[in-house]
């Protein structure tokens, strides 16, 4: 007869089986550590690169033609010059769609001048537009608000992001006389707001 060293069958079952409670704890700890490490890495990359939105300013706006052929039809010709500045040293920007110019790339800490002409012949406008033009004429100042929309992609090293829509809002105030007006010009420069 052999000597029994185990005190009870309960202890025998504990020795030979897998403890699922400890296994689940280890698995949960492993996945949570992996998840937090990935999040920390993404946050660190974002903090180092910190893609900031481009800054735009309106350098010049020239109104070469502005007249109403009837109370609700507008003829206009406007030349805009925008200054685009990208303050980030580590991220480049591809402008895929912006105004009516061809796509271009803006490198690290680069500044670009963007010039565009806006021409409209016999454009229908709201009946209140004539009243607003006459009011601005009485005041002696024409306030123009320009809203430009486009799409851009960020470039970090060889990686290029998906397309993001952005909107640039600019306001120009210029002296205003009679209609049909002589060329109006705005050359002061004003900061535009950019939303992405």
List keywords for this structure.
about 200 residues; alpha+beta; six-stranded antiparallel sheet; elongated; transmembrane; NDR1-like; Late embryogenesis abundant protein LEA-2 subgroup domain-containing protein
Characterize the structure shown:
This protein has 196 residues and is α+β, with helices and mostly antiparallel strands. The chain has 2 domains: 9-49; 55-195. Helices cover 26% and strands 46% of the residues. The protein has helices at residues 9-16, 20-49, 128-139, and strands at residues 55-70, 73-85, 92-98, 104-106, 111-124, 141-156, 159-160, 164-175, 184-186, 190-191, 193-195. The strands form 2 sheets. Strands 3, 4, 6, 7, 8 and 11 form a 6-stranded antiparallel beta sheet that branches. The protein is elongated, with a radius of gyration of 32 Å. The model has no long low-confidence stretch (mean pLDDT 80).
Helix-strand layout with pairing:
Layout: H1 9-16, H2 20-49, E1 55-70, E2 73-85, E3 92-98, E4 104-106, E5 111-124, H3 128-139, E6 141-156, E7 159-160, E8 164-175, E9 184-186, E10 190-191, E11 193-195
Antiparallel strand pairs: 1-2, 1-9, 1-10, 2-5, 3-4, 3-6, 6-7, 6-8, 8-11
Low-confidence stretches: none
pLDDT averaged over residues: 80
Helical proportion? 25-40%
Derived from helix and strand composition plus strand pairing, the structural class reads alpha+beta
Number of strands: 11
Radius of gyration: 32 Å
Task: Provide the number of structural domains.
Answer: 2
- The general outline is elongated
Structure described in brief:
This protein has 196 residues and is of the alpha+beta class. It has three helices and eleven strands.
